[in-house]
UniProtKB/TrEMBL annotation:
GO terms for biological process: transmembrane transport. This is ABC transmembrane type-1 domain-containing protein. Belongs to the binding-protein-dependent transport system permease family. CysTW subfamily. It is a multi-pass membrane protein. CDD domains: TM_PBP2. Its main location: membrane. Residues 88-302 form the ABC transmembrane type-1 domain. Pfam families: BPD_transp_1. Keywords: Cell membrane, Membrane, Transmembrane, Transmembrane helix, Transport. It is found in: Cell membrane. InterPro entries: MetI-like, MetI-like_sf. The chain crosses the membrane at residues 35-54, 87-114, 126-154, 174-200, 221-242, 248-269, 281-303. Residues 1-23 are annotated as: Disordered.
Length: 312
C-alpha cells in the first residue's frame, strides 16, 4: 500500500476519546488557618467596638437624657440657640473653604506630578511629603503656624522687614477664620494629593490616543473624556476633606482657643468646661457632628464606588 493511502486511512483507535486525567483536588484552608485568619482581624473589630461603636451609642443615649438620666428632647431644642447655630455655621464655612481649596490645589498638584512632564523625582518626593503632611495636625501644627504667621512669626517679620508689608494691617490674623482655614489647608492639600493620584493613574493612555486620532484637542479630551471619569473621585474626595476638617478639634483649639466659635470648641466647653458645662448638650452637639460627617463619608463611599465602576 502506498504512503498516500496510509496517510488517508483513519485508524479506529483514534476515534476513541482520550480518558481525562483527573486533576488533583486542592483542599481549601483548614480550620486552623481559618481560625488564625479570624484572630488576625480581632484587633480591628476590638478597636472599632471600643473607639467607634460604643462611644457613638453612648452619645446617642446621652443626647436624649437630662443630667438626672431622664428622657428628654430638650438637648435638641437647645441646638437651635443662636450660639449653637452660629458655631455650626462657622464650622461649615471653615470646612467648606478648606475642602474646596484643598481639592483644587491638591488636584492640580497631583495632575502635575502624574500627567505633567516633570522630572521623575518629583512624584515620589511629593507623595512622601503628602503622606507625612496629611497626618501633621493638632498642637504641633498650630504651634508651627503661630511661629510662622503670628504677629511676630518668621514670615510676618520678614515681610515687614524686607518688603515693608505689614500682614496684620490687612485684617489677617492667624487666630481668625482665614487663619484657621489656611492652617487646615496644610493637611487638606496633601490628603487630596494622596486620594486623587490613583484616579489620575486610572486614566488610560489609549483614551488620549483615540481622542488625538479623531482630531480632538486637549480641551475636548478633558471636557468629554477625562473629567467625566474623574469627577466622582474628585467630588468624593472633597466630601472626605469636608468631614476631615469638620471633626478636627485639636488644631482649632490649640490655635484659636475660644476666640473662634466653632462647634468642636463649643463641644469641648460643654463637656470639660466649668462655666458652660452641660454634658448632655455636648452629647447632642457631638451627635449632630456624627450625622454631618457620616453623611459626608457616605457620599464619599458612594462616589468612590461609582468612580471604580466608571474606570472598569
Amino acid at each position: 500500500m502506498s504512503a498516500s493511502s496510509d496517510a488517508g486511512s483513519v485508524q479506529p483507535e483514534l476515534l476513541v476519546p482520550p480518558v481525562p486525567t483527573p486533576t488533583p483536588r486542592v483542599n481549601g484552608p483548614g480550620r486552623a488557618s481559618q481560625f488564625l485568619a479570624w484572630i488576625g482581624v480581632v484587633p480591628f473589630f476590638t478597636f472599632a467596638l471600643l473607639f467607634l461603636i460604643l462611644p457613638t451609642g453612648f452619645l446617642m443615649v446621652g443626647a436624649f437624657q437630662d443630667p438626672q438620666g431622664h428622657f428628654t428632647l430638650g438637648n435638641f431644642r437647645d441646638l437651635l440657640q443662636p450660639t449653637v447655630l452660629d458655631a455650626y455655621w462657622i464650622s461649615f464655612k471653615v470646612s467648606a473653604a478648606s475642602a474646596f481649596g484643598g481639592a483644587l490645589i491638591g488636584s492640580l498638584l497631583a495632575w502635575a506630578a502624574v500627567q505633567g512632564k516633570l522630572p521623575g523625582w518629583i512624584r515620589p518626593t511629593l507623595m512622601t511629603f503628602s503622606g507625612v503632611a496629611s497626618n501633621f495636625a493638632g498642637v504641633p501644627l498650630a504651634f508651627a503656624f503661630i511661629c510662622t504667621l503670628g504677629r511676630v512669626g518668621l514670615v510676618t517679620v520678614l515681610l515687614k522687614k524686607y518688603l515693608g508689608f505689614n500682614l496684620y494691617s490687612t485684617g489677617f490674623s492667624v487666630l481668625s477664620f482665614s487663619g484657621l482655614t489656611l492652617t487646615y489647608l496644610y493637611f487638606q492639600i496633601p490628603l487630596m494629593v494622596l486620594i486623587v493620584t490613583p484616579a489620575l493613574d486610572g486614566l488610560k493612555r489609549e483614551w488620549r490616543e483615540a481622542c488625538d486620532c479623531l482630531g480632538g484637542t486637549a480641551f475636548q479630551y478633558w471636557r468629554h473624556v477625562a473629567l467625566p471619569v474623574l469627577w466622582p473621585s474628585v467630588l468624593g474626595a472633597t466630601l472626605l476633606l469636608f468631614a476631615n476638617s469638620f471633626g478636627a478639634v485639636a488644631t482649632a483649639y490649640a490655635l484659636t482657643g475660644s476666640s473662634l466659635n466653632i462647634v468642636t470648641i463649643l463641644l469641648y466647653a460643654q463637656i470639660r468646661g466649668d462655666v458652660m458645662h452641660n454634658q448632655n448638650l455636648g452629647y447632642a452637639l457631638a451627635l449632630g457632628m456624627v450625622l454631618v460627617t457620616g453623611l459626608s463619608n457616605g457620599g464619599y463611599i458612594w462616589l468612590r464606588s461609582r468612580a471604580e465602576r466608571g474606570r472598569r
